[in-house]
Automatic annotation (TrEMBL):
Keywords: 2Fe-2S, Iron, Iron-sulfur, Metal-binding, Redox-active center. Belongs to the glutaredoxin family. Monothiol subfamily. InterPro entries: Glutaredoxin, GRX_PICOT-like, Monothiol_GRX, Monothiol_GRX-rel, Thioredoxin-like_sf. The lineage of its organism: Bacteria, Pseudomonadati, Pseudomonadota, Gammaproteobacteria, Oceanospirillales. This is Glutaredoxin.
Length: 112
């Protein structure tokens, strides 16, 4: 797959899913502590979200940091915008802003 194809795939994933996390592993079996913490925060909101296991997609794992300008994983995108990594997601979960953001994202997604 060419670099252009990989970037197009990433862009399609981000635009096709109102809430998307690029993570190591799956929500049921995260393969790093940061991914586990971010998914736990997402799950606590009750919002629906999609995920991409970057360990199963090495080309995306390699290219995404250049697309998002964010060097580490996990990476959470809401309505096509990068929210951030595990620390930001967990901080937003703690102050309640993550739930609000995700509720708005899921409402706007179902309204379209």
């Amino acid at each position: 797959m060419s670099t252009t194809d990989i970037i197009q795939t990433i862009n399609k994933q981000i635009t096709s899913n109102p809430v998307l996390i690029y993570m190591k592993g799956t929500p049921e079996a995260p393969e790093c502590g940061f991914s586990a913490a971010a998914v736990k925060s997402l799950q606590a909101t009750g919002a629906d979200f999609a995920y991409v296991n970057i360990l199963q997609a090495p080309s995306i794992r390699e290219r995404l940091p250049k697309v998002s300008n964010w060097p580490t994983f996990p990476q959470l995108f809401v309505n096509g915008e990068l929210v951030g990594g595990s620390d930001i997601v967990c901080s937003m979960a703690a102050d309640g802003s993550l739930k609000t953001l995700l509720q708005e994202a899921n409402v706007s997604a179902s309204a379209e």
